[in-house]
Amino acid sequence: MHNEILTIFDEAGNRTGTAPREVVHRLGHWHETFHCWFISKDQETLYIYLQLRSEQKQDYAGLLDITAAGHLLAHETVEDGIREVQEELGLELSFEDLIPLGTIPYSMRKDTLIDNERAHVFVYHNPYQLEDFQLQKEEVAGIVKVKFVDFRRFWQGEIHSLQVNGFQVDPHGHRITIQQDVDMTHFVPHDADYYTRIINGVEAILLTSSIGAEGI
């Protein structure tokens, strides 16, 4: 994985070449990623889905994160990013079913990791049940969902904890039900502005789609 070759960019988004993933993160080169956020509606209540990162992950192990996400390799297009959903969640989606939120540039730093991403972000209206998810154990340990209205209030600083519901796969492959309160320490530390743009994007989609904006 760390020998993957990524396309690199300058701050203006101009392609400047390629580099191995380890070098990209060590030197802080801008590079492309694919983010897919699942949402669903149940009895007029809107939910947003989070993945629980595997404890085997080198970075941010065991934290809550984007439903499915990953790097785009140098030979890949944005459309190829759909493989991240298939690999991590075991679900067959069509790229045409995704709703684009645009490209969001953002940065994260952790120890020697400098992660400067040009994230191609999408939303997917999820028809699947939690039992349909087949997780890639090296990457994903569980899937939870949270009420969107609470997710919004949480990232706007109105509340300081969230109730998540879903499942986690234990080391023996058994699914364990999750129902717990989480706080900021349970999340991958994406910039708050990133979460705000996701929330605003989802709300804009709801106002113009058949999903409807009730419950947000």
Word description of this protein:
This protein has 216 residues and is of the alpha+beta class. It has a single domain (5-207), classed as Nucleoside Triphosphate Pyrophosphohydrolase, CATH 3.90.79.10. Helix content is 18%, strand content 41%. The chain has four helices and eleven strands, in the order E-E-H-E-E-E-E-H-E-E-E-H-E-E-H. The protein has helices at 21-27, 83-89, 148-155, 192-207, and strands at residues 5-9, 15-20, 30-42, 45-53, 64-65, 68-71, 99-110, 113-125, 140-147, 162-169, 175-182. Strands 1, 2, 3, 4, 5, 6, 7, 8, 9, 10 and 11 form an eleven-stranded mixed beta sheet that branches. Helix 3 runs antiparallel to helix 4. It is globular, with a radius of gyration of 17 Å. The model has no long low-confidence stretch (mean pLDDT 93).
Shape descriptor:
globular
The chain-level structural class is: alpha+beta
> How much beta, percentage-wise?
35-45%
End-to-end distance: 39 Å
Helix count equals 4
What is the topological layout?
Elements: E1 5-9, E2 15-20, H1 21-27, E3 30-42, E4 45-53, E5 64-65, E6 68-71, H2 83-89, E7 99-110, E8 113-125, E9 140-147, H3 148-155, E10 162-169, E11 175-182, H4 192-207
Helix pairs in contact: 3-4
